[in-house]
Write the structure tokens for this entry.
Amino acid sequence: MLDAIVRLLEKTNNVNRSSYFWNAVSAMVLAMQSPVILMVMNRTNGTTDAGIFSIAIAVGNLMMYVGQYGLRRFQSSDINEQYSFREYHGMRVITCALMMIACFAYCAFGRQFRDYPGDKSLVVFLVCMLKLFQAYTDVYHGHMQQRGRLDVATKCSSIRYAAEIISYCGTLLIVPDLVLATWICVGVSFVIMLLTTINAGRYYSDSLAPVFSAEKIKSLAIDGFPLFVSMFLNIYAGNAPKYAIDAYLNDDIQAVFNMIFMPAFVIQIIAHFIFNPILTTYAVLWLAEEKDKFARLIRLVKKQCLLVLGLLAAAIAVALTIGLPVLSLWFGTDLSGYKTELCIIMFGGAMLAYSVYFSTIIAIIRVQRSLIICYGLVSLLSLAISRSFVVGHGMIGASVLYAVLMTILALALFIVVLRNFRARASLINSKHC
């Protein structure tokens, strides 16, 4: 049966076309997880449980980057195989262990200092478990992408994400118990992970056993640290309004904010997956140091920037017209009074898409230390102003906070990319004079 599953996952007439198709499917299914679960939960359990789930997802996404340590982009673009899969695997085991320690610490902090009830702490921890599976399987998927089988990796992800939605919503519809639904979802996700990703991973490496070489782990820790810090702070800054609401307001307000925030969250998820297939291609073009290939790289960058601009225009148009009626119908809650907030959030979502793209480029061209400065400054800014925005202005303050932080971040990263591309162009021109 296990071999039959792998054959089914590998079945395709065109690997490249299949990779792009299943990458898009995986992005869409993951992007729809929170909206679909919140839609069902709001109807079966009410806004309080929906708010608890919302902050659990925000915390889980933050913790997931501890587990991933920002190494997926580095691994996928490691075309010369500076590190082996077993070395990446060893590093991932360590970072995932650190992730769960961080999750436990956060839940303990919530119980002690934010008066989290026991069920809220447990749900947050269990959702972090779901994100642990995503962080762990990511090292297998990065290796599959290195081997030219991104399609297999994204099929595995699509199946697992879909199973999580079905199990979570199915349980809520039968027994509206938030804790039970989360437990069942974790169990289903674990089984699917074993049957798909871990099972298929056997075919792309001579051995799956992780290697814990002190020298290699230290080297990976150094190489990945800027990416880890940047992505961790990226998620923190992007979710700063949610953390502020969790700290100073209540779960009902958290639920409503996440309902109008959901389209921006979808943009964020899609952006990550849209840019995943470009990693290897961009790395090859950057390393070639040839005029024609560098010119092609520039064209690809411009094309992607225009694509995000088009997404922004479409998003604002939807927000101004059918956005709130659709969201109100979807979540079963009257959101008609939040048009301004939705438009502001959609603009911030587009800026976040730009920041994801520019940080991807920065990782590929290996100047990731500059990411720490950009994300660090924005995160410090969010710490300084979050309370005043949210406490003083409520929902509109949280929306403006998000848009301001994401715009500053996108501009800072763009400046880094522009400076490095100009330096590269000068180097290539001098070599071919």
